[in-house]
Write a structure and sequence with these properties.
Helix 3 runs antiparallel to helix 4. The protein has nine helices and no strands. The relative contact order is 0.11. The radius of gyration is 19 Å and the shape is flat. By secondary structure, it is mainly alpha-helical.
Length: 263
Amino acid sequence: MTLLLTSIFSALIYLLAGVIQASALSGNKPAPRSLVMMLGAGAWVLHTLSVYLILHPGNGIQLGLFPVTSLIAWLVSGLVILSCLKKPLTMLFVAIFPCASISVLLAALLPSANLPQQYSGGEIAHILTSILAYSIFAIAALQAIVLARQDHELRNHHVRGLVRSLPPLQLMEQLLFEMIWLGFALLSASLLTGLLFLQDIFAQHLVHKTGLSFIAWGLFAILLWGRHQKGWRGMKAIRWILGGFLFLMLAYFGSKFVLELMV
């Protein structure tokens, strides 16, 4: 009952904060930042309890599809809320809070078929770096989409609504690549710990996940090289970011979906 109540209230408060932020953007006026931040923080605290109860149902840790989806949404929401204390990223709440609302409800209402498991220290390090890397890249992908919209509107001399509420394009790109560098470092650590501590990383049921993760790593490596050596920016950089994130998303959620829901 505690899990269900915290999940429902967390979802409702997330939705309320997201609606307030979206209404302000569509109405071409500044959002009540303090109110949105306060609601988002309250929903996140409830989400924290929900995630803990879902991941620890008994003996071991539950890492099924919906529990981990909720965990990633919790991390993404928390990272953006924390970042917004110093950086202008509140526009991301429009997409992040509804996704967090859905994920916390799905995890509470749809029990996972997987049994809780015990993990070694090395395996936990791999899991944590993987989830952190995915969360950072998820934020970066959302910001890349916002950046693409901003670039398009500015090229067409439209400066109303969303564009007016955003920081300058150069600052947006700078923040984006700070996240890409952080995500790349975490993804590198995830792949390294996987090679060191997972005995079956190239087993048949994991080989596609491993392969897609290495492809994503390669795409982000090329992107950062292009940024440093060739000055890639704008839509060219955005396409590489979204392409890398797509492979990363397929690596995790694609394999989880197939293994848990289709096999």
